[in-house]
Structures are given as structure tokens and as C-alpha cells.
Amino acid sequence: MQLGEVPALDLRGLVKSFGPKTAVNGLSLQVPRGSLYGLVGPNGAGKTTTLSMATGLLRPDVGSAAVVGHDVWSDPAGAKALMGVLPDGVRLFDRLSGRELLRYVGLLRSVPQQVVAERTEQLLDALGLHGDGNTLVVDYSAGMTKKIGLACALIHTPRLLVLDEPFEAVDPVSGEAIRTILRSYVGSGGTVILSSHVMELVEQLCDRLAIVIAGQVVVQGTTDEVRAGQSLQQRFLDLVGVQAADPRGLSWLQSSSD
After folding, report:
1. Mean pLDDT, consecutive 10-residue segments, the chain of 258 residues?
2. Same domain (yes/no): 67, 188
3. Helix axes 113-126, 98-108, angle to 10 degrees
4. What's the domain range around 102?
5. How does DSSP assign 224-237, residue by residue?
6. Does residue 49 share a domain with residue 92?
7. In-domain check, residue 59
């Protein structure tokens, strides 16, 4: 990020608690424009809660979130107009067909009707859904639902894409199509922040990343800086402090030699 440039996503001192549990604890993160930014961490680290606060789905107890300089809470319309969001466990209007859903979302986003029609067909083709465009979303598989959710996030050409586990339940062919789309989107000036549990995917796809543990960013930077000469998987395990499980208590799982 160049000096003085407004980040695509700027999170400052986010805090969120649920009863006695603090899910996010003073988290700050700046995502430069034009980056493909990975957010990784163990289960329960606060990644989804962070992205929910970043996109206006969840109000922080403390802190701020801004999208290209637009505060998510004081200027929600301005911020959300610049975002495309694919939450984890996305709920869609699944009694519409895929084609109808994209038309609905595009018009809701104030995209001209003719442009919506063109982009709908292009997105269905790119994501391998054209043959299922008239199928109700409720009848889609988990992977197809993920892909139509991504199409909905893209149809209004946002400046920032926020993706929570975008490759979950997606087959390898579709996964490669999504990677190609994301690289092209970033290459044309867009910005992506995505969370994933798959370290190899983040390592290959993202140029910058942050590791979140216990609701805080413990390290961030370029992928090479974060890896520090190791594989991302090993670097992650070292930071989390994971020890190998002792299998002796599961001796009953071993096959009998009789």
C-alpha cells in the first residue's frame, strides 16, 4: 500500500464479546487495494466474527471498520455499495432459480436491467452453472450454492470482495474456475479478503495474509514475510503451538493382527 493511500478495508481496534467470551479482542487490520488477502486461524479464532463486523452484519462493541474510506456504521450505504460479500453458511432466496436470483440481486444493487441480463449469463457460464440456471437454488448442491453466492457478490462489480470459506464444498474444477475469476478481478484493480482453513490454497493464491489467534492478529504481511522461510502450514502450527496428538488412547482403532 502506497503512502497516503486509503486501504480497501481498514479495521481498527475491533472488539466483540458474546457473554463472558471475547471472540475478537482489539483486532486491527489494513487490507491494501489490489491485494488478494488471506485471513487464517484456528477454529474459534474470531475470523468469521471479524468479517461479519467488517461487512456490517454484526456491530462491534468497540472499534471501527471502513471500506475505501467509508465507515461501515456511520455510512453503511456508501460502504456496502462498494462491497460484495459471501458469508459462510450463506442464506439465499432459494425459491428462486439461479438466473432469477442473480437478476434480483443485480436490480437490488441498481445495476441497469440489460447489464444485469448480460452479467447473469456471463457469471453462470464462468462458474459452470449455465445448465442449472433455471433450477431452483433450493435444489442446488452445497458447492453450487457456494458458486451462485459468489456470483451474487460479483454482479455489481464491487471494489472489495469479502469471502468467508469460498472454496468449502467446491469441487477441484470449480475451485480452479473460482481462483481464475479472483485473480482476474484483482488484476483489474479489485481487492479480495478471504478466510480459509486450507493453508496450501491460501499460500498459492494470496499475496498477503494475516494469522488470527484468540481474536487478535499475531502476524501479517506479504505471504513470504508471514511464512518466514517455512511452509505456511508449519508456520501456522508453530504460532498456534499445536502438539502432535498421542494415538495411544485410541489403540482400540488399530486392526487386529489375528
Report:
1. 77 96 95 96 92 94 96 94 88 92 95 96 95 95 92 96 91 90 94 92 94 94 94 90 72 67
2. yes
3. 140
4. 83-157
5. HHHHTTS-HHHHHH
6. no
7. yes
